[in-house]
Amino acid sequence: MHQVIARTWRPQRFSDVIGQNHVTRTLQNAIRLGRTGHGYIFSGQRGVGKTTMARLLAKALNCAAGPNPEPCGECDSCQEITAGRAVDVIEIDAASNRGIDAVRELRENTRYAPARDPNKVFIIDEAHQITTEGFNALLKTLEEPPPHVVFILATTEIHELPETILSRCQHFAFHASSFTEILDHLRTICAAEKVDADPEALAALASSAGGSLRDALSHLEQAIAAFGSPLEANAVLRLLGVVPSQMVEEVFAAVRAEDRETLLGVVSRLVDEGFHLPHFCTQLVRAVRNMLVAKVAGPAQHLMETSEEECRRLVEQAAEFSEQDLMRYLEILLHLHQQLRHALEPRFQTELALLKLVEVGRLVSIEELLRQMESGGSAAPGDDGPSRRRSGGSTSGGSTSSGGGTGPGGSTASSGGVKPPEKPPLSPFEQDSLRKKQLSEESATADSSVSVSPSHPEAAPAAPGSGVTSGVASDSVASAVPAESASADATSNATAAGGPGEEIIRRLEERGKVMLSSLLHAAGNWEFGEGEARIATASNGLASVLPPADLQMLETVVSEVIGRKMRVEFVQQPEATPAGGGGAIRAQPGGKAASDPQIENTVRADPEVAEFVKLFRAPVTGIRKWRS
Protein backbone atom coordinates (compact mmCIF):
# COMPACT_ATOMS: atom_id res chain seq x y z
CA MET A 1 0.00 0.00 0.00
CA HIS A 2 1.25 3.49 -0.89
CA GLN A 3 2.62 5.54 1.98
CA VAL A 4 2.30 9.30 1.79
CA ILE A 5 5.37 11.50 1.52
CA ALA A 6 4.92 12.95 5.02
CA ARG A 7 5.34 9.47 6.54
CA THR A 8 7.88 8.18 4.05
CA TRP A 9 10.19 11.12 4.73
CA ARG A 10 9.73 11.22 8.51
CA PRO A 11 13.20 11.72 10.09
CA GLN A 12 14.73 8.56 11.59
CA ARG A 13 17.81 10.21 13.08
CA PHE A 14 18.39 13.45 14.95
CA SER A 15 20.49 14.73 12.07
CA ASP A 16 17.49 14.39 9.72
CA VAL A 17 15.32 16.78 11.74
CA ILE A 18 14.87 20.14 9.97
CA GLY A 19 14.95 23.46 11.79
CA GLN A 20 15.04 22.27 15.42
CA ASN A 21 18.76 22.29 16.16
CA HIS A 22 18.28 23.82 19.61
CA VAL A 23 16.22 20.76 20.63
CA THR A 24 18.28 18.01 19.02
CA ARG A 25 21.58 19.41 20.34
CA THR A 26 20.28 19.62 23.91
CA LEU A 27 18.80 16.12 23.90
CA GLN A 28 21.92 14.56 22.38
CA ASN A 29 24.14 16.28 24.94
CA ALA A 30 21.89 15.09 27.78
CA ILE A 31 22.09 11.50 26.52
CA ARG A 32 25.85 11.74 26.04
CA LEU A 33 26.35 13.08 29.59
CA GLY A 34 23.83 10.75 31.16
CA ARG A 35 21.64 13.64 32.34
CA THR A 36 18.30 12.78 30.75
CA GLY A 37 15.20 13.93 32.57
CA HIS A 38 12.10 12.01 33.54
CA GLY A 39 9.63 14.48 32.01
CA TYR A 40 9.69 16.54 28.80
CA ILE A 41 7.21 18.93 27.19
CA PHE A 42 7.45 19.55 23.46
CA SER A 43 5.35 22.55 22.33
CA GLY A 44 4.91 24.24 18.99
CA GLN A 45 2.57 24.61 16.06
CA ARG A 46 1.36 21.66 14.04
CA GLY A 47 3.70 19.81 11.72
CA VAL A 48 7.05 20.94 13.14
CA GLY A 49 8.24 17.54 14.45
CA LYS A 50 7.10 17.22 18.07
CA THR A 51 5.93 13.59 17.85
CA THR A 52 8.87 12.70 15.60
CA MET A 53 11.31 14.10 18.15
CA ALA A 54 9.58 12.15 20.95
CA ARG A 55 10.04 8.90 19.01
CA LEU A 56 13.67 9.70 18.27
CA LEU A 57 14.28 10.32 21.98
CA ALA A 58 12.62 6.98 22.79
CA LYS A 59 14.87 5.28 20.20
CA ALA A 60 17.98 6.91 21.62
CA LEU A 61 17.11 5.82 25.16
CA ASN A 62 16.16 2.23 24.24
CA CYS A 63 18.66 1.59 21.44
CA ALA A 64 20.54 -1.70 21.85
CA ALA A 65 23.81 0.21 21.48
CA GLY A 66 22.77 2.90 23.89
CA PRO A 67 21.62 5.01 25.36
CA ASN A 68 23.04 6.50 22.17
CA PRO A 69 23.05 10.18 21.05
CA GLU A 70 22.20 8.92 17.56
CA PRO A 71 19.96 5.82 17.34
CA CYS A 72 21.30 3.09 15.09
CA GLY A 73 17.97 2.37 13.41
CA GLU A 74 18.99 -1.27 12.90
CA CYS A 75 18.28 -2.98 16.23
CA ASP A 76 14.94 -4.54 17.07
CA SER A 77 14.04 -1.74 19.47
CA CYS A 78 14.63 1.02 16.87
CA GLN A 79 12.71 -0.84 14.18
CA GLU A 80 9.75 -1.58 16.46
CA ILE A 81 9.53 2.04 17.55
CA THR A 82 9.65 3.13 13.89
CA ALA A 83 6.84 0.70 13.06
CA GLY A 84 4.82 1.78 16.11
CA ARG A 85 4.61 -1.65 17.75
CA ALA A 86 7.18 -1.31 20.56
CA VAL A 87 5.87 -2.70 23.84
CA ASP A 88 7.85 -0.36 26.04
CA VAL A 89 7.00 2.84 24.13
CA ILE A 90 3.34 3.72 24.74
CA GLU A 91 1.76 6.47 22.66
CA ILE A 92 -1.43 7.93 24.14
CA ASP A 93 -3.85 10.26 22.41
CA ALA A 94 -4.95 12.65 25.14
CA ALA A 95 -7.87 13.86 23.05
CA SER A 96 -9.63 10.52 23.61
CA ASN A 97 -7.98 9.62 26.95
CA ARG A 98 -8.37 12.84 28.82
CA GLY A 99 -10.27 11.97 31.99
CA ILE A 100 -9.19 10.95 35.45
CA ASP A 101 -9.89 7.26 34.80
CA ALA A 102 -7.45 7.17 31.86
CA VAL A 103 -4.80 8.89 33.98
CA ARG A 104 -5.31 6.36 36.80
CA GLU A 105 -4.76 3.53 34.32
CA LEU A 106 -1.61 5.26 33.05
CA ARG A 107 -0.36 5.64 36.59
CA GLU A 108 -0.89 1.94 37.26
CA ASN A 109 1.09 1.01 34.15
CA THR A 110 4.11 3.00 35.34
CA ARG A 111 4.50 0.60 38.26
CA TYR A 112 5.46 -2.30 35.98
CA ALA A 113 9.03 -2.71 34.73
CA PRO A 114 9.81 -2.59 30.99
CA ALA A 115 9.33 -5.86 29.09
CA ARG A 116 12.68 -5.75 27.30
CA ASP A 117 14.12 -2.25 26.88
CA PRO A 118 15.93 -0.19 29.55
CA ASN A 119 13.20 2.48 29.74
CA LYS A 120 9.46 2.68 29.54
CA VAL A 121 8.54 5.79 27.55
CA PHE A 122 5.04 7.34 27.61
CA ILE A 123 4.37 9.74 24.72
CA ILE A 124 1.18 11.76 25.41
CA ASP A 125 0.10 13.63 22.28
CA GLU A 126 -2.21 16.69 22.48
CA ALA A 127 -1.54 16.81 26.21
CA HIS A 128 -3.50 20.04 26.67
CA GLN A 129 -6.72 18.02 26.19
CA ILE A 130 -6.32 16.34 29.61
CA THR A 131 -8.86 17.61 32.12
CA THR A 132 -7.97 19.48 35.28
CA GLU A 133 -8.79 16.40 37.37
CA GLY A 134 -6.60 14.24 35.13
CA PHE A 135 -3.65 16.63 35.50
CA ASN A 136 -4.10 16.67 39.26
CA ALA A 137 -4.06 12.87 39.33
CA LEU A 138 -0.84 12.84 37.27
CA LEU A 139 1.08 15.35 39.41
CA LYS A 140 2.65 12.97 41.93
CA THR A 141 3.63 10.38 39.34
CA LEU A 142 5.06 13.06 37.04
CA GLU A 143 7.12 14.54 39.87
CA GLU A 144 8.60 11.29 41.20
CA PRO A 145 8.13 8.53 38.64
CA PRO A 146 9.84 5.14 38.83
CA PRO A 147 13.48 5.27 37.64
CA HIS A 148 12.67 3.41 34.40
CA VAL A 149 9.82 5.79 33.28
CA VAL A 150 10.13 8.80 30.98
CA PHE A 151 7.15 11.06 30.13
CA ILE A 152 7.04 13.10 26.91
CA LEU A 153 4.07 15.47 26.55
CA ALA A 154 3.46 17.04 23.12
CA THR A 155 1.09 19.97 22.75
CA THR A 156 0.17 22.83 20.43
CA GLU A 157 -1.42 24.85 23.26
CA ILE A 158 1.28 25.27 25.86
CA HIS A 159 -0.66 28.01 27.66
CA GLU A 160 -3.40 25.50 28.58
CA LEU A 161 -1.04 23.31 30.61
CA PRO A 162 -1.12 24.02 34.37
CA GLU A 163 1.93 25.61 35.95
CA THR A 164 2.20 22.60 38.22
CA ILE A 165 2.82 20.40 35.17
CA LEU A 166 5.25 22.85 33.54
CA SER A 167 7.36 23.09 36.67
CA ARG A 168 7.88 19.31 36.76
CA CYS A 169 9.14 18.92 33.18
CA GLN A 170 11.79 20.27 30.85
CA HIS A 171 10.11 22.44 28.24
CA PHE A 172 11.30 22.64 24.62
CA ALA A 173 9.61 25.17 22.32
CA PHE A 174 9.72 24.05 18.68
CA HIS A 175 10.17 26.73 16.05
CA ALA A 176 8.13 27.09 12.90
CA SER A 177 10.11 25.96 9.86
CA SER A 178 11.43 28.80 7.76
CA PHE A 179 10.51 29.31 4.12
CA THR A 180 14.04 28.49 2.98
CA GLU A 181 14.18 25.28 5.00
CA ILE A 182 10.86 24.05 3.64
CA LEU A 183 11.77 25.01 0.08
CA ASP A 184 15.12 23.18 0.22
CA HIS A 185 13.44 20.10 1.68
CA LEU A 186 10.82 20.09 -1.08
CA ARG A 187 13.56 20.28 -3.72
CA THR A 188 15.32 17.33 -2.12
CA ILE A 189 12.14 15.24 -2.07
CA CYS A 190 11.21 16.12 -5.66
CA ALA A 191 14.68 15.14 -6.83
CA ALA A 192 14.46 11.82 -4.96
CA GLU A 193 10.92 11.14 -6.19
CA LYS A 194 11.91 12.11 -9.78
CA VAL A 195 9.31 14.88 -9.95
CA ASP A 196 10.08 17.89 -12.13
CA ALA A 197 8.66 21.02 -10.45
CA ASP A 198 8.81 24.70 -11.36
CA PRO A 199 10.61 26.89 -8.82
CA GLU A 200 7.49 29.05 -8.49
CA ALA A 201 5.37 25.96 -7.85
CA LEU A 202 7.66 24.84 -5.02
CA ALA A 203 7.75 28.40 -3.66
CA ALA A 204 3.95 28.44 -3.61
CA LEU A 205 3.88 25.11 -1.75
CA ALA A 206 6.41 26.34 0.80
CA SER A 207 4.60 29.63 1.27
CA SER A 208 1.20 27.98 1.74
CA ALA A 209 2.56 25.75 4.55
CA GLY A 210 2.74 28.61 7.05
CA GLY A 211 5.83 27.18 8.77
CA SER A 212 4.46 23.62 8.97
CA LEU A 213 6.71 21.15 7.18
CA ARG A 214 4.04 18.45 7.32
CA ASP A 215 1.53 20.77 5.60
CA ALA A 216 4.04 21.44 2.83
CA LEU A 217 4.59 17.71 2.29
CA SER A 218 0.84 17.09 2.27
CA HIS A 219 0.34 19.78 -0.37
CA LEU A 220 3.18 18.31 -2.43
CA GLU A 221 1.57 14.87 -2.21
CA GLN A 222 -1.72 16.33 -3.40
CA ALA A 223 -0.09 18.20 -6.29
CA ILE A 224 1.78 15.11 -7.49
CA ALA A 225 -1.45 13.09 -7.31
CA ALA A 226 -3.29 15.76 -9.32
CA PHE A 227 -0.75 16.65 -12.01
CA GLY A 228 2.10 14.16 -11.85
CA SER A 229 5.30 15.45 -13.36
CA PRO A 230 6.06 18.19 -14.20
CA LEU A 231 4.43 20.47 -11.63
CA GLU A 232 3.60 23.80 -13.25
CA ALA A 233 3.16 26.96 -11.22
CA ASN A 234 -0.29 27.95 -12.52
CA ALA A 235 -1.72 24.50 -11.92
CA VAL A 236 -0.33 24.30 -8.38
CA LEU A 237 -1.58 27.80 -7.55
CA ARG A 238 -5.05 26.88 -8.79
CA LEU A 239 -4.98 23.68 -6.72
CA LEU A 240 -4.05 25.64 -3.59
CA GLY A 241 -6.70 28.30 -4.27
CA VAL A 242 -4.05 30.98 -4.65
CA VAL A 243 -4.77 33.97 -6.87
CA PRO A 244 -2.28 34.24 -9.77
CA SER A 245 0.49 36.72 -9.11
CA GLN A 246 -0.49 38.60 -12.29
CA MET A 247 -3.78 39.65 -10.69
CA VAL A 248 -1.98 40.84 -7.56
CA GLU A 249 0.40 42.89 -9.69
CA GLU A 250 -2.59 44.24 -11.62
CA VAL A 251 -4.07 45.54 -8.36
CA PHE A 252 -0.99 47.57 -7.47
CA ALA A 253 -0.61 48.85 -11.03
CA ALA A 254 -4.21 50.11 -10.84
CA VAL A 255 -3.53 51.71 -7.45
CA ARG A 256 -0.51 53.48 -8.89
CA ALA A 257 -2.54 54.71 -11.87
CA GLU A 258 -5.57 55.57 -9.65
CA ASP A 259 -7.69 53.34 -11.87
CA ARG A 260 -10.70 52.54 -9.69
CA GLU A 261 -12.59 50.75 -12.46
CA THR A 262 -9.82 48.17 -12.87
CA LEU A 263 -9.81 47.46 -9.12
CA LEU A 264 -13.54 46.76 -9.13
CA GLY A 265 -13.07 44.57 -12.19
CA VAL A 266 -10.40 42.50 -10.43
CA VAL A 267 -12.73 41.81 -7.49
CA SER A 268 -15.52 40.88 -9.90
CA ARG A 269 -13.27 38.37 -11.69
CA LEU A 270 -12.17 36.85 -8.40
CA VAL A 271 -15.77 36.30 -7.34
CA ASP A 272 -16.78 34.91 -10.75
CA GLU A 273 -13.87 32.46 -10.80
CA GLY A 274 -14.59 31.24 -7.26
CA PHE A 275 -11.51 32.50 -5.46
CA HIS A 276 -11.68 32.92 -1.68
CA LEU A 277 -11.45 36.65 -0.93
CA PRO A 278 -9.76 36.20 2.49
CA HIS A 279 -7.01 34.22 0.75
CA PHE A 280 -6.69 37.01 -1.81
CA CYS A 281 -6.38 39.54 1.02
CA THR A 282 -3.66 37.40 2.58
CA GLN A 283 -1.73 37.51 -0.68
CA LEU A 284 -2.08 41.30 -0.87
CA VAL A 285 -0.80 41.62 2.69
CA ARG A 286 2.18 39.39 1.91
CA ALA A 287 2.91 41.31 -1.31
CA VAL A 288 2.83 44.71 0.42
CA ARG A 289 4.98 43.38 3.24
CA ASN A 290 7.55 42.07 0.77
CA MET A 291 7.57 45.36 -1.16
CA LEU A 292 8.16 47.19 2.11
CA VAL A 293 11.04 44.83 2.90
CA ALA A 294 12.46 45.45 -0.57
CA LYS A 295 12.15 49.18 0.00
CA VAL A 296 13.89 49.06 3.38
CA ALA A 297 16.41 46.21 3.03
CA GLY A 298 16.78 45.80 -0.72
CA PRO A 299 16.26 42.54 -2.66
CA ALA A 300 16.80 40.24 0.34
CA GLN A 301 15.22 36.98 -0.83
CA HIS A 302 15.59 35.28 2.55
CA LEU A 303 13.56 38.08 4.16
CA MET A 304 10.92 38.24 1.44
CA GLU A 305 10.28 34.45 1.42
CA THR A 306 9.57 34.26 -2.31
CA SER A 307 11.07 32.70 -5.40
CA GLU A 308 13.90 34.49 -7.16
CA GLU A 309 11.69 35.57 -10.07
CA GLU A 310 8.94 36.91 -7.83
CA CYS A 311 11.53 38.70 -5.70
CA ARG A 312 12.77 40.54 -8.78
CA ARG A 313 9.24 41.60 -9.74
CA LEU A 314 8.47 42.82 -6.23
CA VAL A 315 11.63 44.93 -6.14
CA GLU A 316 10.63 46.61 -9.41
CA GLN A 317 7.12 47.21 -8.15
CA ALA A 318 8.29 48.57 -4.80
CA ALA A 319 10.25 51.29 -6.58
CA GLU A 320 6.95 52.88 -7.66
CA PHE A 321 5.76 53.53 -4.09
CA SER A 322 7.11 55.37 -1.08
CA GLU A 323 7.67 53.74 2.30
CA GLN A 324 4.90 55.84 3.80
CA ASP A 325 2.39 54.66 1.19
CA LEU A 326 3.37 51.01 1.64
CA MET A 327 2.94 51.24 5.42
CA ARG A 328 -0.50 52.78 4.94
CA TYR A 329 -1.44 50.04 2.44
CA LEU A 330 -0.33 47.39 4.91
CA GLU A 331 -2.42 48.87 7.70
CA ILE A 332 -5.55 49.03 5.51
CA LEU A 333 -5.14 45.47 4.25
CA LEU A 334 -4.48 44.06 7.72
CA HIS A 335 -7.69 45.73 8.90
CA LEU A 336 -9.50 44.21 5.90
CA HIS A 337 -8.08 40.77 6.73
CA GLN A 338 -9.53 41.05 10.22
CA GLN A 339 -12.90 42.28 8.93
CA LEU A 340 -13.27 39.48 6.38
CA ARG A 341 -13.38 36.88 9.16
CA HIS A 342 -16.91 37.92 10.10
CA ALA A 343 -18.01 40.04 7.11
CA LEU A 344 -21.52 39.45 5.77
CA GLU A 345 -20.52 40.91 2.40
CA PRO A 346 -16.82 40.18 1.86
CA ARG A 347 -16.97 41.50 -1.70
CA PHE A 348 -18.12 44.94 -0.59
CA GLN A 349 -15.48 45.09 2.14
CA THR A 350 -12.77 44.14 -0.34
CA GLU A 351 -13.89 46.72 -2.91
CA LEU A 352 -13.97 49.46 -0.28
CA ALA A 353 -10.48 48.60 0.96
CA LEU A 354 -9.02 48.64 -2.56
CA LEU A 355 -10.60 52.03 -3.25
CA LYS A 356 -9.03 53.28 -0.01
CA LEU A 357 -5.64 52.25 -1.37
CA VAL A 358 -6.14 54.73 -4.20
CA GLU A 359 -7.18 57.59 -1.93
CA VAL A 360 -4.52 57.02 0.72
CA GLY A 361 -1.84 58.29 -1.66
CA ARG A 362 -3.35 61.76 -1.36
CA LEU A 363 -2.69 61.96 2.38
CA VAL A 364 -0.03 64.25 3.78
CA SER A 365 2.11 63.33 6.76
CA ILE A 366 1.76 65.15 10.08
CA GLU A 367 5.35 66.38 9.80
CA GLU A 368 4.61 67.97 6.43
CA LEU A 369 1.46 69.65 7.74
CA LEU A 370 3.40 71.08 10.68
CA ARG A 371 6.04 72.34 8.29
CA GLN A 372 3.36 74.00 6.18
CA MET A 373 1.76 75.62 9.22
CA GLU A 374 5.12 76.95 10.42
CA SER A 375 5.84 78.46 7.02
CA GLY A 376 2.27 79.71 6.66
CA GLY A 377 1.88 78.07 3.28
CA SER A 378 1.87 74.76 1.50
CA ALA A 379 5.29 73.17 1.26
CA ALA A 380 6.14 70.78 -1.51
CA PRO A 381 6.56 67.16 -0.49
CA GLY A 382 10.05 65.91 0.18
CA ASP A 383 11.97 63.53 -2.03
CA ASP A 384 10.81 60.37 -0.29
CA GLY A 385 10.00 58.36 -3.37
CA PRO A 386 7.04 58.54 -5.75
CA SER A 387 4.03 59.89 -3.92
CA ARG A 388 0.75 61.25 -5.11
CA ARG A 389 0.34 63.70 -2.29
CA ARG A 390 -1.27 67.02 -3.00
CA SER A 391 1.37 69.76 -2.87
CA GLY A 392 0.75 73.43 -2.21
CA GLY A 393 2.58 76.63 -3.05
CA SER A 394 5.61 77.96 -1.21
CA THR A 395 5.93 81.32 0.47
CA SER A 396 8.36 83.99 -0.63
CA GLY A 397 9.89 86.20 2.01
CA GLY A 398 9.17 89.92 1.93
CA SER A 399 6.32 89.84 -0.60
CA THR A 400 2.57 89.67 -0.26
CA SER A 401 1.25 87.51 -3.05
CA SER A 402 -1.72 85.23 -3.41
CA GLY A 403 -2.27 82.17 -5.60
CA GLY A 404 -3.35 84.04 -8.72
CA GLY A 405 -1.14 87.10 -8.22
CA THR A 406 -4.04 89.49 -7.42
CA GLY A 407 -5.92 90.36 -4.26
CA PRO A 408 -9.67 90.24 -3.74
CA GLY A 409 -10.17 93.63 -5.21
CA GLY A 410 -8.30 92.77 -8.39
CA SER A 411 -5.15 94.72 -7.50
CA THR A 412 -1.73 93.33 -8.17
CA ALA A 413 -0.27 91.79 -5.03
CA SER A 414 3.34 92.41 -5.99
CA SER A 415 4.61 95.93 -5.44
CA GLY A 416 6.72 95.70 -8.57
CA GLY A 417 3.74 94.93 -10.83
CA VAL A 418 5.18 91.57 -11.84
CA LYS A 419 2.62 88.79 -11.67
CA PRO A 420 4.02 85.83 -9.73
CA PRO A 421 3.56 82.30 -11.08
CA GLU A 422 0.27 80.62 -10.21
CA LYS A 423 0.32 78.21 -7.29
CA PRO A 424 -1.70 75.02 -6.92
CA PRO A 425 -4.94 75.39 -4.93
CA LEU A 426 -4.68 74.80 -1.22
CA SER A 427 -6.42 71.92 0.46
CA PRO A 428 -9.41 72.61 2.78
CA PHE A 429 -7.19 71.89 5.78
CA GLU A 430 -4.64 74.45 4.65
CA GLN A 431 -7.32 77.05 3.96
CA ASP A 432 -8.84 76.49 7.40
CA SER A 433 -5.42 76.82 9.06
CA LEU A 434 -4.72 80.07 7.25
CA ARG A 435 -8.14 81.47 8.11
CA LYS A 436 -7.56 80.76 11.79
CA LYS A 437 -4.18 82.42 11.57
CA GLN A 438 -5.81 85.47 10.00
CA LEU A 439 -8.35 85.72 12.82
CA SER A 440 -5.65 85.45 15.48
CA GLU A 441 -3.60 88.22 13.86
CA GLU A 442 -6.70 90.40 13.51
CA SER A 443 -7.36 89.98 17.23
CA ALA A 444 -3.80 90.97 18.04
CA THR A 445 -4.13 94.01 15.77
CA ALA A 446 -7.41 95.04 17.44
CA ASP A 447 -5.73 94.87 20.85
CA SER A 448 -3.07 97.26 19.53
CA SER A 449 -5.82 99.67 18.31
CA VAL A 450 -5.08 98.76 14.70
CA SER A 451 -7.77 97.47 12.30
CA VAL A 452 -6.32 95.70 9.27
CA SER A 453 -7.91 93.44 6.66
CA PRO A 454 -5.22 90.88 5.73
CA SER A 455 -6.72 89.94 2.42
CA HIS A 456 -6.94 93.54 1.14
CA PRO A 457 -4.46 95.70 3.04
CA GLU A 458 -4.60 98.61 0.60
CA ALA A 459 -8.17 99.43 1.59
CA ALA A 460 -7.91 98.95 5.38
CA PRO A 461 -7.33 102.01 7.61
CA ALA A 462 -4.11 102.18 9.55
CA ALA A 463 -3.49 102.86 13.21
CA PRO A 464 -4.79 106.28 14.29
CA GLY A 465 -2.16 108.96 14.08
CA SER A 466 0.38 106.68 12.45
CA GLY A 467 0.46 108.31 9.05
CA VAL A 468 0.93 104.90 7.47
CA THR A 469 -1.23 103.09 4.94
CA SER A 470 -1.63 99.43 5.73
CA GLY A 471 -0.19 98.35 2.44
CA VAL A 472 1.43 95.17 3.71
CA ALA A 473 0.32 92.06 5.55
CA SER A 474 1.91 88.99 7.05
CA ASP A 475 4.06 87.11 4.55
CA SER A 476 3.02 83.76 5.92
CA VAL A 477 -0.68 84.49 5.34
CA ALA A 478 -0.93 86.70 2.27
CA SER A 479 1.56 84.79 0.16
CA ALA A 480 -0.20 81.46 0.69
CA VAL A 481 -3.89 82.34 0.21
CA PRO A 482 -5.07 82.06 -3.40
CA ALA A 483 -7.15 84.89 -4.87
CA GLU A 484 -10.40 82.96 -5.08
CA SER A 485 -10.27 81.86 -1.43
CA ALA A 486 -9.09 85.25 -0.18
CA SER A 487 -11.98 87.05 -1.84
CA ALA A 488 -14.43 84.71 -0.14
CA ASP A 489 -12.79 84.80 3.28
CA ALA A 490 -12.30 88.52 3.86
CA THR A 491 -13.71 91.76 2.47
CA SER A 492 -12.18 95.10 3.33
CA ASN A 493 -13.93 98.31 4.29
CA ALA A 494 -13.78 99.71 0.79
CA THR A 495 -15.39 96.58 -0.65
CA ALA A 496 -18.06 96.54 2.04
CA ALA A 497 -18.92 100.19 1.50
CA GLY A 498 -19.79 99.58 -2.11
CA GLY A 499 -21.26 96.11 -1.78
CA PRO A 500 -22.27 93.95 1.19
CA GLY A 501 -22.29 96.78 3.73
CA GLU A 502 -24.69 99.02 1.81
CA GLU A 503 -26.91 96.05 0.95
CA ILE A 504 -27.09 95.03 4.63
CA ILE A 505 -28.00 98.58 5.71
CA ARG A 506 -30.64 98.83 2.97
CA ARG A 507 -32.34 95.61 4.01
CA LEU A 508 -32.36 96.69 7.68
CA GLU A 509 -34.04 99.97 6.73
CA GLU A 510 -36.66 98.05 4.77
CA ARG A 511 -37.42 96.03 7.91
CA GLY A 512 -37.78 99.13 10.08
CA LYS A 513 -34.52 98.84 12.02
CA VAL A 514 -33.71 102.57 11.86
CA MET A 515 -31.50 102.78 14.95
CA LEU A 516 -29.50 99.71 13.89
CA SER A 517 -29.00 101.02 10.35
CA SER A 518 -27.86 104.39 11.75
CA LEU A 519 -25.33 102.63 13.95
CA LEU A 520 -23.98 100.72 10.95
CA HIS A 521 -23.79 103.93 8.84
CA ALA A 522 -21.21 105.19 11.33
CA ALA A 523 -19.24 101.93 11.31
CA GLY A 524 -15.61 102.41 10.47
CA ASN A 525 -14.60 99.04 9.03
CA TRP A 526 -16.30 95.82 7.87
CA GLU A 527 -14.53 92.47 7.71
CA PHE A 528 -16.11 89.27 6.44
CA GLY A 529 -14.48 85.92 7.26
CA GLU A 530 -15.50 82.30 6.67
CA GLY A 531 -18.24 82.34 9.32
CA GLU A 532 -17.84 85.66 11.11
CA ALA A 533 -18.40 89.34 10.29
CA ARG A 534 -16.57 91.95 12.36
CA ILE A 535 -17.83 95.55 12.42
CA ALA A 536 -15.77 98.38 13.90
CA THR A 537 -18.03 100.96 15.63
CA ALA A 538 -17.46 104.19 17.51
CA SER A 539 -16.14 104.14 21.04
CA ASN A 540 -19.43 105.43 22.53
CA GLY A 541 -20.50 101.92 23.55
CA LEU A 542 -23.82 101.88 21.63
CA ALA A 543 -23.08 98.45 20.17
CA SER A 544 -22.74 96.96 23.67
CA VAL A 545 -26.36 97.86 24.56
CA LEU A 546 -27.83 96.60 21.30
CA PRO A 547 -30.96 94.49 22.01
CA PRO A 548 -30.54 90.76 21.40
CA ALA A 549 -33.41 90.82 18.90
CA ASP A 550 -31.61 93.45 16.81
CA LEU A 551 -28.38 91.48 16.93
CA GLN A 552 -30.20 88.35 15.79
CA MET A 553 -31.88 90.32 12.98
CA LEU A 554 -28.47 91.68 11.92
CA GLU A 555 -26.93 88.18 11.81
CA THR A 556 -29.87 86.96 9.72
CA VAL A 557 -29.50 89.79 7.21
CA VAL A 558 -25.71 89.40 7.00
CA SER A 559 -26.14 85.65 6.37
CA GLU A 560 -28.65 86.39 3.59
CA VAL A 561 -26.34 88.88 1.87
CA ILE A 562 -23.13 86.85 2.20
CA GLY A 563 -24.81 83.55 1.32
CA ARG A 564 -23.70 81.47 4.30
CA LYS A 565 -24.26 81.30 8.05
CA MET A 566 -22.50 84.26 9.66
CA ARG A 567 -21.93 85.44 13.23
CA VAL A 568 -21.64 89.21 13.85
CA GLU A 569 -19.13 90.69 16.28
CA PHE A 570 -18.69 94.40 17.10
CA VAL A 571 -15.21 95.73 17.79
CA GLN A 572 -14.45 99.19 19.18
CA GLN A 573 -12.92 101.74 16.81
CA PRO A 574 -10.57 104.05 18.77
CA GLU A 575 -10.50 107.81 18.46
CA ALA A 576 -8.00 109.43 16.07
CA THR A 577 -4.94 110.98 17.68
CA PRO A 578 -4.21 114.60 16.71
CA ALA A 579 -1.14 115.20 14.60
CA GLY A 580 0.70 116.98 17.38
CA GLY A 581 -0.35 114.65 20.15
CA GLY A 582 2.71 112.52 20.13
CA GLY A 583 1.49 110.12 17.46
CA ALA A 584 1.82 110.01 13.74
CA ILE A 585 -0.69 111.14 11.11
CA ARG A 586 -3.52 108.70 10.38
CA ALA A 587 -3.71 107.41 6.84
CA GLN A 588 -6.84 108.06 4.79
CA PRO A 589 -7.79 105.66 1.99
CA GLY A 590 -7.66 107.51 -1.27
CA GLY A 591 -5.43 110.28 0.10
CA LYS A 592 -2.39 111.61 -1.68
CA ALA A 593 1.08 110.45 -0.82
CA ALA A 594 3.05 112.65 1.54
CA SER A 595 5.32 114.90 -0.45
CA ASP A 596 7.36 116.32 2.44
CA PRO A 597 10.41 114.08 3.09
CA GLN A 598 10.64 115.45 6.62
CA ILE A 599 7.10 114.31 7.42
CA GLU A 600 7.79 110.89 5.88
CA ASN A 601 10.96 110.46 7.93
CA THR A 602 9.09 111.47 11.07
CA VAL A 603 6.40 108.93 10.40
CA ARG A 604 8.84 106.14 9.71
CA ALA A 605 10.72 106.91 12.93
CA ASP A 606 7.54 106.83 15.01
CA PRO A 607 7.61 104.01 17.66
CA GLU A 608 4.07 102.92 16.76
CA VAL A 609 5.02 102.52 13.12
CA ALA A 610 8.11 100.54 14.09
CA GLU A 611 5.95 98.27 16.22
CA PHE A 612 3.54 97.89 13.30
CA VAL A 613 6.36 96.88 10.94
CA LYS A 614 7.73 94.42 13.51
CA LEU A 615 4.27 92.87 14.00
CA PHE A 616 3.67 92.18 10.30
CA ARG A 617 7.32 91.50 9.40
CA ALA A 618 7.11 93.66 6.25
CA PRO A 619 8.29 97.17 5.32
CA VAL A 620 6.03 100.23 4.87
CA THR A 621 5.30 100.74 1.17
CA GLY A 622 3.61 104.18 1.24
CA ILE A 623 2.53 107.12 3.41
CA ARG A 624 -0.56 109.27 2.76
CA LYS A 625 -1.92 112.30 4.57
CA TRP A 626 -5.05 112.06 6.70
CA ARG A 627 -7.92 114.21 5.49
CA SER A 628 -9.92 115.66 8.38
Report, as a whole number of angstroms, the end-to-end distance: 116 Å
Calculate Rg over CA atoms: 41 Å
- Low-confidence stretches are 378-419, 449-497, 576-594
Helical stretch tally: 28
Mean pLDDT: 77
Description:
With 628 residues, the protein is an alpha/beta fold. 49% of the residues lie in helices and 7% in strands. It contains 28 helices and eight strands. The strands form two sheets. The protein has a five-stranded parallel β-sheet with strand order 2-3-4-1-5, covered by helices on one side. Strand 2, helix 5 and strand 3 form a beta-alpha-beta unit. 40% of the residues are buried. About 18% of the residues have low confidence.
Record the SSE blueprint.
Layout: H1 5-8, H2 21-33, E1 39-43, H3 50-62, H4 76-83, E2 89-93, H5 100-109, E3 120-125, H6 132-143, E4 149-155, H7 163-166, E5 170-173, H8 179-193, H9 199-208, H10 213-227, H11 233-240, H12 245-257, H13 260-272, H14 277-297, H15 301-304, H16 308-318, H17 323-339, H18 346-360, H19 366-375, H20 428-447, H21 475-478, H22 483-489, H23 493-498, H24 500-510, H25 514-521, E6 525-528, E7 532-537, H26 548-562, E8 567-572, H27 597-604, H28 607-616
Parallel strand pairs: 1-4, 1-5, 2-3, 3-4, 7-8
Antiparallel strand pairs: 6-7
